[in-house]
């Protein structure tokens, strides 16, 4: 958590950190990913058979290599909106017998050449060299799907007995169960764009019944409830009815603005959403008299990113071309998750490749977009425990996106957005995003111990972007600082400071 004192425009900013003031453990699942059958995420992204850059299974090796650098702990599949008309049996068995189906979420055709077994194999390849495997997280079809179909999918993935769907998995060449722990009870079922949209009352009743049946089949499952934004009447109702039968509550938010400062402050709406959802969880536990012995229902922020559907429509593949401004917004997003880590059980950036992604593939290569670099720094260094930090600086008090955010920011949005962690090796890591596109801030820091490693993400201006012709317009610059005097956080920059705590 980071507290804030507002200063005048001419006052010298101050950042104070203390490695001994540990607040909460950061769940590694906070750095999760998401793959959906949408645009070129799967086909032409992860899976591109016949391409010289793919292995014998059709998996793009350059994508796998890049994702290994992020040390992703969990990946959600197969959607997203796609899942509301997806029938998993279409995507298993001999490929030449798999049916092509109309795809209603993004108005395409699904070939079903990549399905459950391919996803599990792809995760296995991605996990090579890791101490722990990349966990699968499957979203169930609660649109056109049935409970029988959901139970069959769990049995296919996890069954160990002499039963039909466990044996079907064996028949298709996969003797050992996949041990899928994380299962979502549908996706965005509240949305009017959904096939089989439901009322909150109907969904809560259905989710409770599905949870009961799924746990009878496999008590080890971690079940994730379909929430909305974390601050809606849907969230309130479904938590009230289902908090005692689920392990996590899913919320989704995307942010974007054409104006730089409103773009980089927009993720602060997610901070308020997390706090509100956490309070709704508490209310639901109190009203349902959930015993203290039952672990807290955590928040699963399983879709988040910078995305403007008007400039990158989903039906056209949602291939955002990200700017430095967007990279800084992602940095603020990740600062929010670190600050609120006591409530976060999982978070999943949408999506893994091509679709609103930090990675863009072509037939001949890969571009790491601007948003890749904050993700890499956070995944590499911002693990361990959130520690207390305090920032004193001037603030932005202008219009916000969404508009309601302006009314809940106490004192405005600090020009220096800060989070801090101490890792298992005893290093203190502090991220500072200077959201201003006009001013550098010479800042005093209390609690630093030199020498200090410095990692800076910046560029020529907020609209700088990486392309195939200029892949390094925005990247990470490494330097050092002796910790003496003040430090200058340059305009439109993200800076990670790292030192051994005393």
Indicate the topology:
Elements (H helix, E strand, L loop, with lengths): L1 E5 L7 E12 L7 E2 L26 H10 L3 E4 L23 E3 L4 E3 L5 H11 L8 E5 L7 H12 L5 H8 L10 E3 L15 H18 L4 E5 L6 H10 L5 E8 L4 H6 L2 H20 L10 E9 L17 H16 L4 E6 L9 E3 L4 E3 L3 H10 L3 E9 L1 E2 L8 H4 L4 E2 L1 E7 L4 E8 L6 E6 L5 E7 L16 E7 L5 E3 L3 E8 L2
Parallel strand pairs: 1-15, 2-20, 3-4, 4-7, 7-8, 8-9, 9-10, 10-11, 11-12
Antiparallel strand pairs: 2-15, 5-6, 13-14, 15-18, 16-17, 18-19, 19-24, 20-23, 21-22, 21-24
Helix pairs in contact: 3-4, 3-5, 5-6, 6-8, 9-10
Describe this structure in words.
Pathway: Glycan metabolism; L-arabinan degradation. It holds the Pfam family ASD1_dom. InterPro entries: Alpha-L-AF_C (IPR010720), ASD1_cat (IPR055235), GH (IPR017853), Glyco_hydro_b (IPR013780). One of its GO terms (biological process) is L-arabinose metabolic process. Its EC number is 3.2.1.55. This protein is of the alpha/beta class and 502 residues long. It has two domains: 2-22 and 387-500, Sandwich (Immunoglobulin-like); 28-383, Alpha-Beta Barrel (TIM Barrel). Helices cover 25% and strands 26% of the residues. It is built from eleven helices and 24 strands. It has helices spanning 61-70, 116-126, 147-158, 164-171, 200-217, 233-242, 260-265, 268-287, 324-339, 372-381, 405-408, and strands at residues 2-6, 14-25, 33-34, 74-77, 101-103, 108-110, 135-139, 182-184, 222-226, 248-255, 298-306, 344-349, 359-361, 366-368, 385-393, 395-396, 413-414, 416-422, 427-434, 441-446, 452-458, 475-481, 487-489, 493-500. Strands 1, 2, 15, 18, 19, 20, 21, 22, 23 and 24 form a ten-stranded mixed sheet that branches. The protein has an eight-stranded parallel sheet with strand order 3-4-7-8-9-10-11-12, covered by helices on one side. The protein has a two-stranded antiparallel sheet with strand order 5-6. Helix 5 (200-217) links the parallel strand 8 (182-184) and strand 9. Helix 3 (147-158) crosses helix 4 (164-171) and helix 3 packs parallel to helix 5. The longest helix has 20 residues, at 268-287. It is globular and about 70 Å long. The mean pLDDT is 97.
């Amino acid at each position: 958590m980071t507290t804030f004192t507002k200063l005048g425009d001419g006052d010298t900013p101050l950042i104070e950190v203390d490695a001994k003031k540990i607040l909460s453990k950061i769940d590694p699942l906070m750095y999760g990913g998401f793959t959906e059958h949408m645009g070129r995420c799967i086909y032409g992204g992860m899976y591109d058979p016949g391409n010289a850059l793919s292995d014998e299974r059709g998996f793009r090796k350059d994508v796998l290599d890049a994702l290994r650098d992020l040390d992703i702990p969990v990946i959600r599949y197969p959607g997203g909106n796609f899942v509301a008309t997806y029938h998993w049996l279409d995507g298993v068995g001999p490929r030449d017998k798999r049916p092509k189906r109309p795809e209603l979420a993004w108005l395409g055709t699904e070939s079903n050449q990549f399905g459950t077994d391919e996803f599990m194999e792809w995760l296995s390849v991605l996990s090579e060299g890791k101490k722990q495997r990349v966990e699968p997280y499957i979203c169930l079809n609660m649109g056109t799907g049935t409970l029988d179909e959901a139970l069959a999918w769990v049995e296919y993935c996890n069954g160990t007995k002499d039963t039909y769907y466990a044996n079907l998995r064996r028949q298709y060449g996969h003797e050992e169960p996949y041990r899928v722990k994380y299962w979502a009870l549908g996706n965005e079922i509240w949305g009017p764009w959904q096939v089989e949209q439901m009322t909150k009352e109907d969904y809560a009743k259905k989710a409770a019944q599905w949870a009961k049946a799924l746990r009878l089949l496999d008590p080890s499952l971690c079940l994730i409830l379909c929430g909305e934004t974390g601050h809606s009447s849907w969230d309130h109702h479904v938590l009230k009815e289902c908090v005692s039968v689920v392990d996590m509550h899913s919320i989704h938010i995307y942010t974007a603005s054409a104006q730089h400062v409103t773009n980089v402050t927009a993720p602060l709406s997610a901070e308020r959403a997390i706090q509100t959802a956490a309070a709704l969880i508490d209310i639901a536990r109190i009203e349902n008299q959930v015993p203290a012995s039952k672990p807290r229902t955590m928040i699963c922020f399983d879709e988040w990113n910078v995305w403007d559907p008007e400039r990158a429509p989903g039906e056209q593949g949602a291939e955002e071309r990200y700017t430095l401004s967007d990279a800084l917004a992602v940095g603020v997003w990740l600062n929010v998750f670190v600050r609120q880590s006591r409530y976060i059980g999982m978070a999943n950036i949408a999506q893994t490749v091509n679709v609103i992604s930090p990675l863009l593939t072509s037939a001949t290569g890969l571009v790491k977009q601007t948003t890749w670099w904050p993700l890499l720094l956070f995944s590499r260094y911002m693990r361990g425990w959130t520690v207390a930090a305090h920032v004193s600086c001037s603030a932005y008090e202008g219009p916000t996106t969404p508009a309601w955010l302006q009314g809940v920011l106490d004192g405005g949005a600090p020009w220096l957005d800060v989070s801090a962690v101490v890792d298992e090796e005893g290093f203190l890591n502090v991220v500072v995003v200077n959201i201003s596109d006009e001013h550098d801030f010479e800042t005093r820091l209390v609690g630093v111990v030199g020498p200090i490693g410095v990692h800076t993400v910046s560029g020529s201006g907020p609209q700088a972007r990486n392309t195939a012709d200029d892949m390094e317009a925005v990247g990470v610059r490494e330097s050092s600082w002796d910790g003496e005097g003040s430090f200058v956080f340059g305009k439109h920059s993200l800076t990670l400071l790292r030192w051994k705590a005393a």
